């Protein structure tokens, strides 16, 4: 691993430059957003208690583009990823400015997701246990790739409801993807992932509680798009069986959050795109966590899952067909830690809520208030 890093120092350079650009540029973008009136104003659904400018995603995107132009080969696949990210950012920025209807927004996301396949970034094969390499026809591989990109874009957007949460989770995912891609001999996806991590870390300087700016849809869609595209470009298309599940493991938190929210909305016959306060971070706040504590807890949860992904990649259990006791114990310990943390979170958000009458009563009152609001609307 260290040898790959020495051979590709752009991984570090890109991340550091992205961090510096976003730290310096974000206040200017926030000032511009205030002048244009692009701010989140407090209401029953939002957590902020004062108007906060959006459009932080523009600073994030510029922080990603500048080092990308300096360090990446833009003659092939990476050009498609950056062009698609630009379209995703523009769609998100328009939504931040004017607000887009869900069908129009989805159409813009599909346009963005259709660009990487034009440059060869699509799932043409993957490897399954006991089966081996599975080749996909072009139409199916492109469709699956577009579906995955759009899904991750919306997952990150759903996650962006707590100061610093989405930026922290995407930063952890970026670091993890950079390490995985570098170990697989994919320098461009590794550099781009590191740049994303640096941009997220720089944005946290202004976005962690109490946030002075939000990334908005422009940032959430750009980050979700790039992380999904990098997964396809650098991780999915590999001969390694285990690598197939690693991107999904790193993105487990937004996947779980989106699954819970969509299931609840379908259960209550609500539109899937309707906004509410049923996300995991809202559940943390409902049981008494502060915004800081809730965000840090979810970061730690994401870090344990990322650690399990890295351990699975770098500690082979059966090198040469023989079980390695030490590596097996280490991987088992890390996996148990990730499982234990996940059970702890489920206990806090589900079991405690059901056992505590006060919290259960508060949940009923919130649901009644939402029902009254829907009826009045």
Task: Explain briefly what this protein structure is.
The protein has 377 residues and is mainly alpha-helical. The chain has helices spanning 2-7, 10-36, 56-71, 77-98, 102-113, 115-118, 138-159, 165-183, 187-207, 216-236, 246-250, 252-267, 280-286, 291-314, 325-355, 357-376, and strands spanning 39-40, 52-53, 125-128, 132-135.
Topology:
Blueprint: H1 2-7, H2 10-36, E1 39-40, E2 52-53, H3 56-71, H4 77-98, H5 102-113, H6 115-118, E3 125-128, E4 132-135, H7 138-159, H8 165-183, H9 187-207, H10 216-236, H11 246-250, H12 252-267, H13 280-286, H14 291-314, H15 325-355, H16 357-376
Antiparallel strand pairs: 1-2, 3-4
Helix pairs in contact: 2-3, 2-9, 3-4, 3-9, 3-10, 4-5, 4-10, 5-7, 7-10, 7-12, 8-9, 8-10, 8-14, 9-10, 14-15
Structure in words:
The protein has 377 residues and is mostly helical. It has one domain (2-376). The protein has helices spanning 2-7, 10-36, 56-71, 77-98, 102-113, 115-118, 138-159, 165-183, 187-207, 216-236, 246-250, 252-267, 280-286, 291-314, 325-355, 357-376, and strands at 39-40, 52-53, 125-128, 132-135. A two-stranded antiparallel ribbon has the order 1-2. Helix 2 (10-36) runs antiparallel to helix 3, helix 2 packs across helix 9 and helix 3 (56-71) packs antiparallel against helix 9. The longest helix is centred in the last third of the chain and has 31 residues, at 325-355. It is globular.
Strand order of the largest sheet: 1-2
Shape: globular
Give the helix tally: 16
Biggest sheet architecture: 2 strands, antiparallel
What structural category do the secondary elements indicate? mainly alpha
* Radius of gyration, whole Å: 21 Å
**Tally of individual domains:** 1
Tell me the total number of β-strands.
Answer: 4
Show unreliable segments. Answer: 351-355
Q: Name the average pLDDT.
A: 84
Distance between the termini: 57 Å
Helix content bin: over 70%
Order of helices and strands: HHEEHHHHEEHHHHHHHHHH
How much β-strand is present in the residues? under 5%
């Amino acid at each position: 691993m260290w040898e790959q890093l020495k051979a590709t120092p752009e991984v570090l350079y890109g991340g550091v430059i992205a961090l510096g650009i976003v730290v310096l540029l974000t206040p200017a973008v926030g000032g511009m957003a205030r002048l244009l009136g692009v701010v989140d104003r407090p209401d029953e659904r939002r957590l902020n208690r004062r108007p906060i400018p959006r459009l932080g995603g523009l600073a994030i995107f510029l922080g990603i583009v500048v080092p990308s132009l300096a360090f990446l080969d833009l003659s092939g696949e990476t050009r498609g990823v950056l062009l698609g990210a630009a379209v995703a950012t523009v769609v998100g920025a328009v939504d931040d400015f004017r607000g887009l209807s869900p069908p129009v927004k989805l159409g813009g996301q599909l346009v963005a997701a259709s660009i990487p396949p034009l440059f060869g970034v699509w799932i043409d094969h993957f490897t399954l246990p006991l089966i081996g390499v599975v080749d996909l026809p072009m139409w199916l591989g492109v469709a699956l790739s577009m579906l995955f990109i759009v899904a991750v874009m919306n997952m990150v957007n759903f996650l962006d409801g707590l100061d610093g949460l989405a930026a922290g989770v995407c930063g952890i995912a970026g670091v993890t993807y950079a390490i995985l891609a570098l170990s697989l001999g994919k320098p461009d996806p590794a550099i781009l992932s590191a740049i994303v991590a640096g941009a997220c870390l720089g944005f946290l300087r202004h976005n962690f509680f109490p946030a002075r700016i939000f990334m908005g849809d422009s940032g959430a869609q750009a980050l979700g798009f790039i992380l999904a595209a990098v997964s396809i470009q650098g991780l999915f298309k590999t001969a390694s069986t285990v690598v197939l599940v690693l991107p999904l493991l790193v993105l487990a938190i937004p996947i779980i959050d989106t699954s819970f929210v969509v299931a609840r909305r379908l259960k209550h016959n609500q539109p899937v795109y309707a906004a509410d306060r049923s996300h995991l971070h809202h559940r943390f706040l409902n049981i008494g966590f502060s915004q800081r504590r809730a965000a840090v807890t979810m970061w730690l949860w994401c870090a344990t899952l990322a650690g399990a992904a890295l351990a699975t990649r770098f500690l082979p259990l059966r090198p040469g067909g023989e079980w390695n006791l030490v590596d097996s114990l280490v991987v088992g310990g890390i996996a148990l830690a990730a499982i234990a943390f996940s059970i702890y979170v489920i206990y806090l958000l589900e079991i405690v809520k059901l056992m505590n009458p006060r919290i259960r009563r508060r949940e009923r009152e919130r649901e009644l208030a939402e029902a009254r609001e829907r009826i009045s609307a």
